[in-house]
Write a structure and sequence with these properties.
Blueprint lengths: L1 H8 L4 H14 L8 H10 L7 H9 L2 H4 L6
Length: about 70
Amino acid sequence: PSELMAEIGKAPNAQRHYAEKFVSFAANRSPNQNDTCIVDTLSTNMAAPTYSVASMMADYTQADSFRLRTLGN
């Protein structure tokens, strides 16, 4: 399993897909155009070897799409 995870992590869009899935889970909806900036930011930050899941969660809470969301958005 650890070798499989390492190989999946090497895929060109793996970090972006992970960020999209995280945003989808955290927002309880499919990502939309309002989430593009935070998905880009999270996927870029994940390239750093010391970036943790806790950091990703904290960064997500600072996104406009999280802070300024409305019912149904």
